[in-house]
């Protein structure tokens, strides 16, 4: 019998190995705990956006949610079992019939095709997008492209001028420049072109997800399972219609991850350094476009630091965190460009603690969900005249009051946290249908009507709910098998596989930890849920292998 050495058996192991292994095991264990929580949450809770009374050709859902808590129905449990079994069986048949397939290319082309189909099915007029942030960015980008710098002049009597918007959110200048680039290339206000670019980038994201699965060590069958999970993900395809820089930010930050994965494979220190620099350069671009992806870049830095300790490349640790600091500071570049172009100074904007204050409170007259956006931060900005110190004091006071209230009433605190997390992580569409419906449409075609209205909408949401639970549950299984391999330090567990799992675990922890405190939106958690696809495929592959070995007496081979 062969015995594997536990990660805590430190005999003959150098200090660098002991430290890096302990950090890796701790990270995987925390991520597993989060995944178990998310799986249970998705089984016991579901959030649905409330429909508007008369949707017609515009907004279909309110940004108000009904949360359902309780034991799942037998139909739901049966659906989870059937979807899991179908993915396992189809992947096995696919492997047997077509043993060699360019899965990355196939996944990318399929995603692109379905995203374009969804965009064209919406049949948008291209004139109106009923989302205030998008509208502000569209108007500002049009003005910048057309040279109408007067649009950026302060207008004291206007409640929502372009100047006011960037005074509150100066970090949005990077997103505005992304809109401006699209409009410069394809015509001002071309919202359809923006969606098509989203679709192209989603194709690239699908390709990269499949390559991450390969780096995770998925077999041919496991990679097909991942492809099937991506193919059946309704939020992934429908997210192309969201006229906002989320897709672009995710695309670039995933390119950054691909560079990070290459960096940890390099034997040459020079090559490793080159890939790390490229990782943070691309990461900086991603942060300029969509600021919240800084969570991904921080996760990359932490993992690269752990790998540096393991490989005794200690010089990588200060270099990596210096590059992280530079990437974060580079996010101010778009602001400087826009201020120079329009001859204005927008100021520092709302303090970041404002979003934590929102995330720890609920305005019941403004939203039905705890921690979701309401305009108190804007009201504070107006009352204080944009004074950073006063705004910071107001946010800190709100945070302190919220924490004091939680401490005084623990049951209320638990209810708040559970409902907030359920509204973020157990809403099966991740707001993608909500945002898809915000564009004015010429007509409601058959595909759009299928997902927006009636019984077919109920069926689509039920399927998305089942799919979400399958991903969370089997991502937990995949993380558990990876943790077991690291715990027992199995000799055939290559570093590429374990490093990839560490990246995915750290990304999940960053997203879960941030949006536990930050302003809530289910669309914010979508990129982190999407990164669970490779882990879910790993868990499904392990489960399928176990079932076929134990129940049918043979092993599924790649």
TrEMBL record:
Cited InterPro entries: LipidA_mod_glycosyltrf_83
GO biological process: lipopolysaccharide biosynthetic process
GO function term, MF aspect, one: pentosyltransferase activity
One Gene Ontology CC term in the entry: plasma membrane
Domain of life per record: Bacteria
Keyword line: Cell membrane, Glycosyltransferase, Membrane, Transferase, Transmembrane, Transmembrane helix
Compartments it resides in: Cell membrane
Membrane association type: Multi-pass membrane protein
Transmembrane segments: 25-49, 69-91, 103-124, 165-183, 190-209, 229-257, 269-287, 293-309, 316-337, 459-480, 501-518, 524-548
Name by which UniProt lists this protein: Glycosyltransferase RgtA/B/C/D-like domain-containing protein
Organism this protein belongs to: Bifidobacterium ramosum
Upper taxonomic lineage: Bacteria, Bacillati, Actinomycetota, Actinomycetes, Bifidobacteriales
